[in-house]
C-alpha cells in the first residue's frame, strides 16, 4: 500500500454542520474536477424521505453523479461499517476516471469510517435485529438503555443516550458477539492509499441557526408533513428514528400541535448541529472555510496538494 507523498489520488471530504452549505460546495468542486460524489449521510440513503433529509435534488444529481443516495428501502439496515466497505469500492471505480473524488455529508461516524477505518464487527443477524427493534418499539428507549447498561456498562457511560441509533447498534453488537461492544473497539487508524483533504464551512453560530430555521420552513413548504405520513405509515423503522420524522410522528399522535412539532424540529436540528460542530472541532485535519470564498479557497488547497502529490510520482 502506498504511503506519504507516494499517494496519487485525493479524497476531498466536504463535511460540516447541517444547513452549512455542504451540498452546494461539493457539487461545485465535483464539477470543477470532473468527478463524482459519494454521500456520507446516514439518512439520505433511504429513497422515501428526500425532503426531511435534504437529499440532493434531481437537478443537483443531474449535474453530478451522486452515490449512496436514495438507494435503500426504509426497512433496510445500514451501518458505518457497511459504508466503509461500499465507499472504498466506489472510490476504486472513481479513481479509474479521475484523480479526485468528493465525499459529502454530516454523518461523522461515516466520515471517520472512510478516513480512519472502523473496527471489524460481527454482522448483525436478522433475529437479533428484530429482537432489539421489538424491545425499542414495545418498551421504549429506556428498556434498550437498560439492556446496554447490563451488556456493556463501560460503553453505557460514554454513549450519547439520546442517540438511540447508536445505542441500538451497540446492543445488537453485544448480543451478536457475545461480548461487550467496548471490547471490540480498538481505535486503530487504517492506512489509506489516497490523500485526504477535509473541508467544513464555518458560519457564525446565529447565522447557522437562522439557516437551519429557514431550512425547516422550506421543508414544510416542500411537503415534509405528507412525506412523513407516507413513510411512517409503512412501519416503525430505525431509518425514521431521526429529527423531522420523530416530531411529525408526535404531531400525528396528537402529542403536540403542528406548530409545536415544527418548532421542535428546528430546535432538535440546532442541537444536532452543535453536536456535529463539537465533533469537528476535535479533528485538527479539518480546514475551515468562510462561506464568502469557500469554493475558491477549497480549489486552491486541492490543486496545491494534488500538484505536490504529482511531483513525487
Task: Report on this structure.
The protein is an alpha/beta fold and 313 residues long. It folds into two domains: 184 residues, Rossmann fold (3-Layer(aba) Sandwich), CATH 3.40.50; 59 residues, Histone, subunit A (Orthogonal Bundle). Helix 3 crosses helix 4 and helix 12 packs antiparallel against helix 13. It is globular, with a radius of gyration of 20 Å. 36% of the residues are buried. The N terminus is likely disordered.
Secondary-structure topology with pairs:
Elements: E1 10-15, H1 22-32, E2 37-39, H2 58-63, E3 66-67, H3 80-94, E4 100-104, H4 108-116, H5 126-139, H6 141-151, H7 153-158, H8 164-177, H9 181-184, E5 195-201, H10 205-222, H11 224-233, H12 245-252, H13 258-281, E6 286-289, H14 294-311
Parallel strand pairs: 1-4, 1-5, 2-3, 2-4, 5-6
Helix pairs in contact: 1-14, 3-4, 5-6, 5-8, 6-8, 10-13, 11-12, 12-13
CATH topology (level 3) name of the largest domain: Rossmann fold
Biggest sheet: strands side by side, in what order? 3-2-4-1-5-6
Mean pLDDT: 93
Largest sheet properties? 6 strands, parallel
In whole angstroms, how far apart are the ends? 15 Å
CATH superfamily of the largest domain: P-loop containing nucleotide triphosphate hydrolases
Poorly predicted runs are: 1-5
Which H/E pattern describes the elements?
EHEHEHEHHHHHHEHHHHEH
Rg of Cα set: 20 Å
Structural class by secondary-structure content: alpha/beta
Summarize the model shown.
The protein has helices at 22-32, 58-63, 80-94, 108-116, 126-139, 141-151, 153-158, 164-177, 181-184, 205-222, 224-233, 245-252, 258-281, 294-311, and strands at 10-15, 37-39, 66-67, 100-104, 195-201, 286-289.
Amino acid at each position: 500500500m502506498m504511503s506519504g507523498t507516494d499517494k496519487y489520488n485525493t479524497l476531498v471530504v466536504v463535511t460540516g454542520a447541517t444547513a452549512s452549505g455542504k451540498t452546494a460546495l461539493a457539487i461545485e468542486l465535483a464539477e470543477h474536477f470532473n468527478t463524482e460524489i459519494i454521500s456520507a449521510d446516514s439518512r439520505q440513503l433511504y429513497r422515501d424521505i428526500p425532503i426531511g433529509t435534504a437529499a440532493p435534488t434531481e437537478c443537483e444529481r443531474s449535474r453530478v453523479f451522486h452515490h449512496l443516495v436514495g438507494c435503500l428501502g426504509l426497512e433496510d439496515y445500514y451501518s458505518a461499517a457497511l459504508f466503509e466497505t461500499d465507499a472504498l469500492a466506489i472510490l476504486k471505480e472513481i479513481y479509474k476516471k479521475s484523480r479526485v473524488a468528493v465525499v459529502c455529508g454530516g454523518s461523522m461516524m461515516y466520515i471517520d469510517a472512510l478516513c480512519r477505518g472502523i473496527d471489524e464487527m460481527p454482522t448483525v443477524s436478522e433475529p437479533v435485529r428484530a429482537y432489539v427493534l421489538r424491545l425499542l418499539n414495545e418498551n421504549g428507549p429506556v428498556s434498550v438503555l437498560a439492556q446496554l447498561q447490563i451488556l456493556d456498562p463501560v460503553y453505557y457511560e460514554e454513549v450519547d443516550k439520546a442517540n438511540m441509533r447508536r445505542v441500538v447498534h451497540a446492543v445488537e453488537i453485544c448480543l451478536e458477539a457475545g461480548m461487550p461492544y467496548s471490547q471490540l473497539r480498538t481505535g486503530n487508524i487504517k492506512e489509506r492509499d489516497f490523500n485526504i483533504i477535509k473541508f467544513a464551512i464555518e458560519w457564525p453560530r446565529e447565522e447557522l441557526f437562522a439557516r437551519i430555521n429557514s431550512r425547516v420552513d422550506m421543508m414544510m413548504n416542500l411537503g415534509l408533513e405528507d412525506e412523513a405520513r407516507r413513510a411512517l405509515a409503512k412501519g416503525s423503522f430505525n431509518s425514521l428514528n431521526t429529527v423531522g420524522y420523530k416530531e411529525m410522528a408526535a404531531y400525528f399522535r396528537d402529542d403536540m400541535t403542528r406548530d409545536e412539532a415544527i418548532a421542535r424540529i428546528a430546535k432538535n436540528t440546532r442541537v444536532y448541529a452543535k453536536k456535529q460542530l463539537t465533533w469537528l472541532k476535535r479533528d485538527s485535519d479539518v480546514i475551515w472555510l468562510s462561506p464568502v470564498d469557500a469554493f475558491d479557497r477549497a480549489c486552491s488547497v486541492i490543486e496545491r496538494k494534488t500538484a505536490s502529490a504529482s511531483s513525487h510520482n
